[in-house]
Amino acid sequence: MPLTKIFSTVLPRILLAAAVTLAASVLPAWAQAPPAGAELLPLGEVRAGMKGCAYTIFAGDQVEKFDLEVIGVLPNFLGPRQAIILVQLLGEKVEHTGVVAGMSGSPVYLEGKLAGALSLKLGIFTKEAIAGVTPIADVLEPPVSLLEAQENARPVAALPERFSLRSGIPAAATLERIETPLVFSGFQQSTLREFAPQLAGYGFVAVQGGTAEARADDGQLHAGEMAGMVLVQGDASINSACTVTAVRGDQVFLCGHPFLGMGKLSLPMARSRVVTTLSSSLASTKIVNVGGPIGTITADHLTAVVGKLGPPPAMIPLDLAVVWGGAERKFHFEVARQQKLTPMLVAISTLNGLTQNPLYGEGNTLQVSGEVRIKGHASVRIENTYAPGDSGLPDGMPVALGILGTVSRLFSNTYEAPDIAGISLRVEGAAGNHSYRIESAWLDASEVAPGETVRVRVLLRPYRGEPMIRELSVRVPEQAARGTTLRVLVSDAEGMNRAARGFSPGGAGAEGGLEPFITLLNRERRNDRVYAGLFLPAPTLILEDKEMPNVPLSQINVLDGKSTPGRAQILRESLAGEDAVTLGGPVGGAISLALVVR
After folding, report:
1. With contact defined as beta carbons under 8 Å apart, do 33 and 225 qualify?
2. What does the alpha-carbon distance between residue 552 and residue 246 come to, in Å, rounded to a whole number?
């Protein structure tokens, strides 16, 4: 063949191939992703043996394609009329990694049509990469009944685990959700370990990651890229990460399965950027950096998580100051606003900020003060002291659990949803264990006349210290009947709260509203004090935040005769007087003394 003919026929082909290769190397990641307007494949057309592919990111911003083959369709797998497409992943990379945590939501194409979202994996330690695919119709248009059911559902442990325990089917033989990486940035393993049972129960796999700088193109999402929910941001962050199945206008569909099954919600949505994929025989996962905010997660249902591009919703500011030896260190977090998640997120952030800084040390007594600010209402005051324990838990753990309890009670009240404007905490440390135990107590007189004051002496034993005596006093009411035996209760805060108000506030008073409920919370006694209370043998009616002692028996009988006496509590004693002494640490114990009115 003449040289001129070779150049005229072969060279153009070489140049064309080189141009294509060069173009592919410089094209942005989204250009290599599947087209957004691909035709949808109905579930009824899916057949065993069909060839296809899926798209996800294994590293960087590069969307990659991997092959798959349909094994079959499992009708009614997720629930009535909720099928799953069973597929086998093919190719060197996926056969090496298996199904990867964070791969859920990867768009699946069969014969060039969008068929669904990768969502399930088959067991652990399996030799083949077998996965489940949520049909695309269920991803894009979930039935209304599913949304309503998921909106009222409580988050529970992963279904396959519970099913395996009941049925005896080994975990390796069940399809379960592909884990959602919960990316912790600025958190240490010691913090995550304390909340591991709660995280595992929600179906998360906790991974450490970073926070990437926000970029102008964060909101330009395409199928195969990653996004997720923002749960905590600020000096540390917690975010979920899933693969995007499809983008329709400003709506983003991802995960192919629920995050927590919370139904309608409003949580910030952020871009996720993959650093690399970690291959593991136990659980391969993506290592992710969290990018900038891009919108709002609006729904979390059985077959997909749905987001809307645009401005993100507001979060709850959490400010923490840690003080030790005159030095102070401050942290700022913002926590997602969601009834089931916010208390745990506040607790994790508090524990991490407290324990993971140079000022913190084990073996110290921690005094906590602060407030939970609520729009349109009074603030809930926080004031408690915690001594180091011998349980093996970090000494900061009771601090985290204490604020978790306060926020949980606010969110679970039966009056109205609290609009929390912010939470402020200040934790001051004092070296050593400064706890006290009530060892004994006695009165300066066993009989008193109405109107007289009786002194109460309390023997307190500090932790590994010499015992000490503190004096309190209570006054007998003028109307106390002669010959009556009264009860003097010397107690810690918890014992006095229960004796004076029955069970802890929270179940009483729907008609009173949130403000009386906050009043009850603020009226609770503090655990760094020893209390002496004088109780009369007369019923007390508690209604809302009001205490009505010496209620006539006729009214008590009316309430007792009702099967559900509304929002009232009836106590068989009335608190007639109280005194307290503040100590430098938590107090425990209780002793009852008898006092006769002569």
Report:
1. yes
2. 68
Question: Whole-angstrom Cα distance, residue 348 to residue 561?
Answer: 46
Structure tokens at 207: 């991974």
The candidate with the shortest Cα–Cα distance to 256, out of 133, 361, 163, is 133
Task: Work out the pLDDT band at 527, boundaries 50, 70, 90.
Answer: very high
Alpha helices (runs of H) in 374-485, residue ranges in sequence order? 397-411
363 contacts 388 by C-beta, under 8 angstroms:
yes
What are all long-range contacts of 9-13, with beta carbons under 8 Å and residues at least 24 apart? none
HSE-CB of 300 using CA atoms within 13 angstroms: 22
SS3 74: strand
| C-beta of residue 574 within 8 angstroms of C-beta of residue 539 | yes
Say which amino acid occupies 281: S
With bands split at pLDDT 50, 70 and 90, how would you rate the model's confidence at 46? very high
- Give the residue among 380, 323, 373, 322 at the shortest CA–CA distance from 349: 322
Beta strand segments in 190-249, E: 204-208, 210-211, 226-234, 237-240, 242-248
What is the token pair recorded at 531? Answer: 């209390």
For 377-406, how does the pLDDT look when each residue is reduced to its tens digit (9 = 90+)?
999 999 999 999 877 788 889 999 999 999
| Cα 297 from Cα 4, distance rounded (Å) | 62
Neighbouring CB atoms inside 10 A of 127's CB total 7
At 72, the amino acid letter reads: G
Q: What is the pTM of this model?
A: 0.78
| Amino acid type, 265 | L
What are the φ and ψ backbone dihedral angles of 8, each rounded to 5 degrees? -80, -25
CA 560 → CA 287, 392, 506, 568, distances in Å?
Answer: 61, 46, 21, 10
Tell me the C-alpha distance between 185 and 207, whole Å: 9
Q: How far apart are CA 481 and CA 596, in angstroms?
A: 10
The one-letter amino acid code at 9 reads T
Distance CA 296, CA 338 (A): 13
Share of the chain above pLDDT 90, in %: 44
Phi then psi dihedrals of residue 125, to 5 deg: 60, 20
Q: Residue holding tokens 């290592």?
A: 287
Most confidently predicted of 74-78, 148-152, 503-507: 74-78
SS3 146: helix
Q: Among residues 185, 190, 199, which one has the least CA distance to residue 356? A: 190
- What end-to-end distance do the CA atoms of the chain give, in Å? 131
CA atoms in the 13 A half-sphere facing the CB of 36:
15
